[in-house]
Structure formats: C-alpha cells, structure tokens
Amino acid sequence: xLIALGATEAKFRAQLAGLLEGGxxxxxxxxxxxxxxxxxxxxxxxxxxxxxxxxxxxxxIRSLRxxxxxxxxxxxxxxxxxxxxxxxxxxxxxxxxxxxxxxQPPIFLARVRTLLRRAVWAGDAPEExxxxxxxxxxxxxxxxxxxxxxxxxVILTRLEFDLLAHLLKHPDRAFKRDELLAxxxxxxxxxxxxTLDKHVESLRRKVGPCAxxxxxxxxxxxxxxxxxxxx
Length: 231
Known about the structure:
Elements: E1 2-4, H1 10-22, E2 29-30, H2 36-43, E3 48-51, H3 57-65, E4 75-79, H4 87-93, E5 97-100, H5 105-122, E6 132-135, E7 138-141, E8 146-149, E9 152-154, H6 158-169, E10 175-176, H7 177-185, H8 195-207, E11 214-217, E12 221-224
Parallel strand pairs: 1-2, 1-3, 3-4, 4-5
Antiparallel strand pairs: 6-7, 7-8, 8-9, 10-12, 11-12
Helix pairs in contact: 3-4, 6-7, 6-8
C-alpha cells in the first residue's frame, strides 16, 4: 500500500507506484490520511509506503503506531525533499526506514524487500505473504533466494533470479521487453540493450529441461508458461 500525505506531487506518487508494481508488488494508493486508518485495516497491507509531503507525516505514523493492530506493520517513509531533516522525526515516530530524494530505484526496491523479509523472519507477516514461487518443476525460495529445478538446486545470479521470479509471479502473461527491463533492471523503456536476451539465454541454459517454459513471444518479449515438461 502507498499512502501520499501533504503536498506530495502526483508525479512523485505515480513514480513510486510504478516502481512498486514493476517490482511485482500489488499497490493500493491513498491520496491522504483522512480515513486512512480504516482503509489500511481493510486492505491488510504487508507494507506501508508513506510518500511524505509537507507536514503531518510523523503525526500520522505516530497515530498508526498507537493502534495495537498497527504496531508490527512495516512502514517505509519516502521524502521528496533532498536530505530532509524530517527523516529522524519519521523514524522517531515509528517508521521502520526512511529514504530521501534523489535515490536509485533499485535502492528503493531493496529497502522494500528488506522490510518484507524482516517481517517474514520475525514471524509477523500475514500468512498470505508469498515466500515461495512455483511454476511447473521450478521453485524459488524468495527469502533464502534459492532456486530449485526438478528437485535440484540451481545457482542463479541476482538478476537471473529476479527475472525468473518476476516471470513466475505472472504466469502466462506476455511481457514486453521494456516492461521486463524496467521491472528487473529499472531501465527506461527507450534503452536499447541485449542484456535481457543474454539473461534469458543464460536462464534457459541453467534450468535445462525446463527451458521451454520461458517462451519467446515474437514481436513482444517473453512469458513463462508453467507447463510441466518431461526431462
């Protein structure tokens, strides 16, 4: 869930939402704190990203933490102001982490993953948090970052793992090349690169008999089809 407070501009909210969705996260955006508590309770988010505008964010976080059922909800504050002096106030109010602009998208997404992992390790995460992805004979353990293919462990690089995880999260969906580059590499859509093709080639080689599950969609990009193939 992403909640925007104060004068946080729409473009910044959209950028954060796009990054989260590109990283495979489901996003529900609230445009202010009015009625926010009820909506947060109804949504039961795994993580709350607070896009902090001018004033009120620390008080809002403090009011959330005063609620017994909100004390373990991971909260990440993102301040559009560079080197904001409010960062300490956000943390003191109860935020788990805070980041200011400018920042690199992979850093932002890494902070998100860290808070989600922390909740899983602490046993505080809702049961519906996904920690294992499966597709046919392929299994990815997201917290440990272990890949298993047909019962055998496979060593993947960080980007190979992230690419395969993104495809497994959306079985049978055909992704455009620029969608995958944005989601996994945070590249803008205008970038011309063979990076994606090289990583797909390497992934297919490493998953061996399951290579055909990573399908080329001609003129579009790639998709993962979780059809069990015979070795």
